[in-house]
Amino acid sequence: MASSWKKTRGTLRLTVTIPANSRAVIRVPLTDEDHRVQAPTEARKTQVTDQVVSYRFGSGIWTFTVQAH
């Protein structure tokens, strides 16, 4: 599994690569109640707290965008 991220002016872009025949839970960080997460349409949300939103995925490359409002 690999991940990369880039932060620019209130936006965090997180890309995660999950290898073939694998599954993973991806936890997207939140630092503010007013953050909005754009997740892939295949995303299955498994948990939401004040600090993270968790999603379950199979293999592939998945990109999330977190924007402060």
Task: Please name the fourth-level CATH homologous superfamily.
Answer: Maltose phosphorylase, domain 3
What's the Cα radius of gyration? 12 Å
Specify the number of helices: 0
User: Which percent range describes the beta-strand content?
Assistant: over 45%
What separation lies between the terminal Cα atoms?
A: 30 Å
The CATH architecture would be: Sandwich
CATH class: Mainly Beta
Indicate the low-confidence ranges by residue numbers: none
Feature tags:
about 70 residues, mainly beta, Maltose phosphorylase, domain 3, 5-stranded antiparallel β-sheet, 5 strands, about 0% helix, globular, Alpha-L-rhamnosidase C-terminal domain-containing protein, Bac_rhamnosid_C
Polypeptide structure, described:
With 69 residues, the chain is mainly β. The chain has one domain (2-68): Maltose phosphorylase, domain 3 (Sandwich), CATH 2.60.420. The protein is 0% helix and 75% strand. Strands 1, 2, 3, 4 and 5 form a five-stranded antiparallel beta sheet that branches. β4 and β5 form a beta hairpin. The radius of gyration is 12 Å and the shape is globular.
